[in-house]
Amino acid sequence: MQWSELVAQVREHGRYTSDEQTKQVVRLILSALGGHLSDEVREQVAAQLPATAAESLRYQLPATKPLTGPEFVESVQGRLQGATPATARWDVGSVLSVLADVCGDALTGQVLDDLPPGYALLFGRAELASAA
Question: What whole-number distance in Å separates Cα of residue 82 and Cα of residue 2?
Answer without folding.
Answer: 29
